[in-house]
Amino acid sequence: MSFTITQDGLSKLVNEWLARGKRVAGPSRVKRDCILYVPLQGPDQLLLEDFIRPANSLKEFLFPKHERLFGYRINGNGVELFELEPPKTEQLLIAARPCDAAALPILDQVFNWDCADEFYNRRRQLTTVVTLACSAHDDACFCTSVGLSPCAERGSDVMLVKLDRGKYEVRCHTEKGRSLMEGRLEPSDQVASEPLGPEKRFDPAEVREFVKHNFASAFWQSEGLTCLGCGACAYTCPTCHCFDIIDEGNANEGARVRNWDSCQFSMFTQHASGHNPRENQPARQRQRISHKFDIYPEKFGEILCTGCGNCTRNCPVGIGALSVLTEIGHGEHL
Amino acid sequence: MNEAGQFEPKIVAYVCNWCTYLGADLAGTTRLEYPPNVRIIRLPCTGRIDFNLIVKAFEIGADAVLVSGCHPGDCHYTAGNYHARRRWILFRELLEALGFEMERIHFTWISAAEGRKWQQVVTEITEQTRKLGPYKNLYADTGNGSLPIPEAAPAVDQPAGSEGSLRQRCHQLLADGTVKVVIGYGTGGPVCVTKPADVGRLVWNNQCSSNLTTYLKRQEVRKLGRAAIVVKVCDERALVVLEKESQLDRKDLHVMGMACNGMGQPKCATCDVRVPRFADEVIGEVASVPLAGPPNAAPRGGAALEVLLAKSPAERMACWAREFERCVKCYACRQVCPLCYCERCIVEKNRPTVIDPSPTVKGNFAWHITRAFHLAGRCIGCDECTRACPAGIDLRLLNLSLAKAAEEHFGYRAGINRDVEPLIGAYSLQDKENFIR
After folding, report:
1. Interface residue B225 vs chain A (CB under 8 A)
2. Are B217 and B247 within 8 A, CB to CB?
3. Which of A156, B82, B132, B271 is least surrounded, with the fewest CB atoms within 10 Å of its CB?
4. What is d(CA A309, CA B334) in angstroms, rounded to the nearest whole number?
C-alpha cells in the first residue's frame, strides 16, 4: 500500500502556493540548452522529467548569491546601523534532486557552527523541500560513491518516486511534509521500484587518506594544470558555501552585503601584503578537494559533497571533482 | 522634481579640462544663462573618459549624459580626442545592442572660445531630456520576450587520419625536444602532454570546440617550457591578436593548425575559412569550400543578432536584464577567454571599487558591459564565453554587435590580418563623427 499524486495534483499544489503569495521554485527550462532551478510563475514552467538535473543548485534559495545583511547611514561624523527586514516568504522547493536536498543538512551545520546565521536559518524554517527521485543519471553523476542514492531521503520533507508517466509515489519524511501533502494523496497498490543509481566510482575514505598525506604530491600539479580558475564548479555546487563581505552604497548610506566567493579565484587568499599562500591553480584545486573530503569531515564528521556532478558538467574544460577523485581512487597518482 | 512637482532632468557632463571646461567657464564669465540641470565632471582629456563613467552616471540616476572635449586637431595631448572618438563609435553600438536609450547620450566638441555653443548644447539637451522624462527603463525587465537563439551548424566528422598524424607529429616534436609540452584536446577536455609516450591522450574529433590558446596566459602552463599548441582556424585568430598586443612571441610557440570541418557550433555557421593560415604546420585536408559561403559574406553576426537589433530598445534591454539576472559572476566567461589576460581584472580592483562586484542587476550589467567592451575590436568570435557560461547567457551576441561595428565602421576584423594595427590603440583622421555635434 502506498500513496500517490499525479502531475495535475502537483500543478494544483503549485498554483495554490503561488495564489497565497508564497514562493515556489523548481527545475525549469530557461532556454533551449539550459535547465535551472528558478522561481516559478506557474506550474507549466515546472519541468519534471526527461533531463538529468538542473545546471545550478538548490542552495541559492537558502543562501542567495547576493544578500544584504544590515544597512548603514552616515550622519555627520557618526554612522547609524539598522537591521533589515528578515526573509518572511514561505517557499516550496519542488522536484528538487535528492543530491540537492541532501546538501541542506550539510549547510545547516556550517551556518550554525560558530554563530547562528539568522538569514539562513530563517529561510530554512520557511522552506519545504519536495524531492523527486532520479530516474536517470549520466556519466557525471556519482551519488552512490558518496553514500547517497537516486532516492536518498536526506534533507527531503517529501519524496516523489516516479510510477508511470505523470504519476508519483509520495513518501513523507517529516511533519512538514505530511502537512503539505495532507488531503492531496490517493491510496494505491502500486509501489515504485527503487531507481537504479550510477556505479560506485571511488571511496571517500581513500580520497581522505590520500589528501591527508599527499599535500605536496606532484599529482596536484598535473591535475590542476588545465584548470582555468573560474568559479563555475563552486557556484553550481550544492554544498560550496564560501562568501565575501563588502560594503555597498554611496557617500550617505548603504548596506553590508555578502556575495558568493570561490576558492578557485586567485583573489580568494590574496593577502593585503600581496602574498598569496595558494599561489597557483593546482594549489587551489587541491584546496577544493581537501576541503570537501578532509578538512570538512574533520570538523563536522561528514564529507562536503553529494555527488551531483555539477562541477563536472559545468566545467568549461571538463575537469570537475569526479575526474580527480576517480584518479585518486584508481591509484593513478602512485 | 522641482518645487512645482515637475520633472527636472539631471544631466551629467564629462568634459575635458582644456577646451570644454574652459568653454563652460567662458559661458559663466560672459554671463550666458543656461539651465542649472547639468553637473560638470572635469577630466584631463576625453581620452581619459572611461566608458564605465558613462554607464555609472546612468546607474546613479542621470537622465542624460553629455561627453565633450576639444575639436579634432586641438587636443592638448595631441590625439586623446581621436582615440576617444574611435572608442565612442564602437561603444555606442554596444549600448544600442544592450537597449540603452541613445537619445540620452550626447557627444560634442566645444572649444575654450565656444561659451555660446556650451550654452546652446546644454539648453537643447535639457529641453530634449525634459521631454523624454526620467530614465525609467535602465536595466528594466519590462517583460518583452527573450533573446533570439542562434542556430548551430550541423556537426560533421573531422578528416580521417588527422588524429593519427597529429599524434605522430607531436611524438616527434616532444622526442626531439622542439617543444616541452603539447597543449591539445583530450577525451573530455584539454590536456597538456609532456612525454612522447603520452601522445595517445591527444584526440581530434568533432568535440574539439574549445579554444586552447587561453592556456598561453596561464603561468602554470608557461612554466612547462616551449609549447606546441593545437588550433583550429577560429582559434588561430587569437594568436594574431595576442602577437599584435605583444603578449606572445611566435618563436616561443609551435602552432599545429588543424584543418577543420566544423564543430557543430553556431560560430561554425558563420565560419568562412577552414584551414589555418598562420600555423607552423597544418594537419589534415578538408574540401576547400568555406562552411558559410564565400569569405566576407554578410551578415557576419548571423541571424540572431539581426533579430535582436530589430527589437525596440526597451525590448532589447528587457532581454538582457532577464539574461543577466541568472549571472552568478563565476567569471567563467573571463577565464576561458584567450584575450582576457590581465593579471588583475578591473572587477577585482577594490581600492576603490570600479565595477560593482555584486551579482545584482546593476552589478551584472556593469560587468558584462565592461567585459564586452574590453574585447571591442579584439574578440575573435570563438564563443568560448558563451559555451562556458553555466547560466546559459548568450554573451556572443554582445561580442558580435561589436565585431559587426568594427567591420562596418572600420572594415576591421580581429585576428585576420597580421599586418594591421589593433583597432583600439590606433585612430584615423577620417573616423566618422556624424554623431558628434
Report:
1. no
2. yes
3. B132
4. 23
* Residues in CB range of B163: below 8 A, 6 or more apart: B202, B203, B204, B205
Q: Are B290 and B270 in contact (CB under 8 A)?
A: no
B189/A226 touch (CB, cutoff 8 Å), yes or no: yes
Weakly modelled stretches of chain A, pLDDT under 70: 331-334
CATH of B11-132, one of 3.40.50.960, 3.20.20.70, 3.10.129.10, 3.40.50.2000: 3.40.50.960
| Strands, sheet with A167-172, edge to edge from the N-terminal-most edge strand | A34-39, A23-31, A91-96, A127-132, A158-164, A167-172, A2-6, A186-188
Percent of chain B's residues with pLDDT above 70: 96
Residue B299 is predicted with a pLDDT of 47
Domain count, chain A: 1
Question: Where are chain B's structural domains?
Answer: 11-132, 162-283, 302-410
Query: Cβ of B220 under 8 Å from any chain A Cβ?
Result: yes
B302-410: CATH topology is: Fumarate Reductase Iron-sulfur Protein; Chain B, domain 2 (1.10.1060)
B331 and chain A in contact, CB less than 8 A:
yes
- From the list A260, A265, A317, which residue is nearest B328 (CB)? A260
Least confident of A30-44, A260-274, B272-286, B333-347: B272-286
Q: Directed axis angle between helix A281-290 and helix A204-213, to 10°? A: 130
Rounded Cα distance, B271 and B237, in Å: 12
A33 with B356: Cβ contact below 8 A: no
Report CB contact under 8 Å: B189, A317: yes
pLDDT tens digit string along B385-405?
999 999 999 999 999 999 999
pLDDT at B303: 81
DSSP class of residue B112 equals T
Q: What is the pLDDT of residues B211-240, one digit of tens each?
A: 999 999 999 999 999 999 999 999 999 999
Task: Count Cβ neighbours within 10 Å for each residue of B346-378 and write b for 16 or more, e otherwise.
Answer: ebbeeeeebbbbbbbbbbbbbbbbbbbbbbbbb
- pLDDT tens digits, one per residue of A66-106: 999 999 999 989 999 999 988 999 999 999 999 999 999 99
Domain span at residue A252 reads: 2-329
Q: Is the pLDDT of residue B297 over 70?
A: no
**pLDDT at B287 (0 to 100):** 67
Q: What pLDDT is stored for residue B290 in this prediction?
A: 53
Q: Which backbone phi and psi does B403 adopt, to 5 degrees?
A: -65, -40
A33 contacts B358? CB cut-off 8 A = no
> Would you say A153 and A159 are in contact if contact means Cβ atoms under 8 Å apart?
yes
DSSP string, B201-222: G---STT--S-GGGGGG-HHHH
| B359 to A259: CB separation less than 8 angstroms, yes or no | yes
pLDDT at B295: 46
B contacts of A220 (beta carbons < 8 Å): none
Q: Tell me the backbone φ, ψ of residue B52, rounded to 5 degrees.
A: -60, -30
> Can you give the pLDDT at residue B296?
46
Of the candidates A225, A230, A244, which has its C-beta nearest B335's C-beta? A230
Measured between beta carbons, which residues in chain B are less than 8 angstroms from residue A271? none
- Residues in CB range of A274: below 8 A, 6 or more apart: none
User: Under DSSP, is residue A326 helix (H, G, I), strand (E, B) or coil?
Assistant: helix
- B223 → chain A, closest CA residue: A225
> Is position A334 within any domain?
no
**DSSP designation for A293:** I
